[in-house]
């Protein structure tokens, strides 16, 4: 789907308004697909939970892609950490970074927790239009981070004067921020594939950035403004 060129709701049985309502609610509150199915039934609309799952798989990563050009710039003090997500009975690693003000820098779901995964995460974050090459990167004692940052400095991918700080207590801000994502993941612990988890988490993170007030002109906690912004992003009538 390409913003502004194709109708992302073409061929759908339900209207854009109904689909985006479901997407917004699922991605910002700790509910399951069956919970959402019951919420629709209460409004006289019959939507099967499997249909809701398919909507999230399509529109959650699309929301992440479309929201990024509208994000405020983050600052150069990165706080990086990983948390754990269970997918198909196994633990995988969610790399996440926020800046000193708590704004989301980026995220990456990874099967492994090593220097290669850390480099993939840093490279992804550095490509974003709302990020800057960091002056400080605060991490925990994971030995993979020094290996990754040294290799990236040698390759010219990371500013050579960027300071790596392995000070756990300074990372409280990102550890606290993990909670908002973990709270959302819990009702969906039945995620059956890595791809489904990645696509769903992209939507959780995008919605969290909107709710934090990272979008220019969209105040935090103003659900009406957030609804109108997302409607406009998808080219639907507000």
TrEMBL record:
Residues 65-228 form the Integrase catalytic domain. GO terms for molecular function: DNA binding. Pfam families: DDE_Tnp_IS240 (PF13610). Keywords: DNA recombination, DNA-binding, Transposition. It comes from the Bacteria. InterPro entries: DDE_dom (IPR032874), Integrase_cat-core (IPR001584), IS_Transposase (IPR052183), RNaseH-like_sf (IPR012337), Transpos_IS6 (IPR047930). Signal peptide: none annotated. GO terms for biological process: DNA integration; DNA recombination; transposition. The keyword DNA-binding applies. This is IS6 family transposase. The lineage of its organism: Bacteria, Pseudomonadati, Pseudomonadota, Alphaproteobacteria, Hyphomicrobiales.
């Amino acid at each position: 789907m390409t913003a502004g060129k194709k109708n992302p709701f073409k061929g759908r049985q339900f209207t854009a308004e109904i689909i985006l309502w479901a997407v917004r609610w699922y991605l910002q509150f700790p509910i399951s697909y069956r919970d959402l199915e019951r919420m629709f039934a209460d409004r006289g609309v019959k939507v099967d939970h499997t249909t809701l799952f398919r909507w999230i798989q399509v529109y959650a990563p699309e929301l992440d892609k479309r929201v990024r050009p509208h994000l405020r710039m983050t600052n150069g003090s990165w706080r990086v950490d990983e948390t754990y997500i269970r997918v198909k009975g196994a633990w995988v690693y969610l790399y996440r970074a926020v800046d000193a003000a708590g704004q989301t820098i980026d995220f990456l779901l990874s099967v492994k927790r090593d220097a290669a995964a850390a480099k993939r995460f840093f490279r992804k974050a550095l490509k974003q239009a709302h990020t800057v090459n960091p002056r400080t990167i605060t991490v925990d004692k994971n030995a993979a981070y020094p290996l990754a940052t040294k290799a990236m400095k040698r390759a010219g991918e990371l500013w050579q004067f960027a300071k790596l700080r392995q000070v756990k207590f300074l990372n409280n801000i990102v550890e606290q921020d993990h909670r908002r994502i973990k709270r959302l993941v819990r009702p969906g612990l039945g995620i059956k594939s890595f791809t489904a988890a990645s696509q769903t988490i992209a939507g959780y993170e995008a919605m969290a950035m909107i709710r934090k007030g990272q979008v220019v002109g969209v105040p935090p906690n103003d659900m009406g403004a957030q609804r109108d912004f997302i409607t406009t992003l998808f080219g639907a009538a507000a």
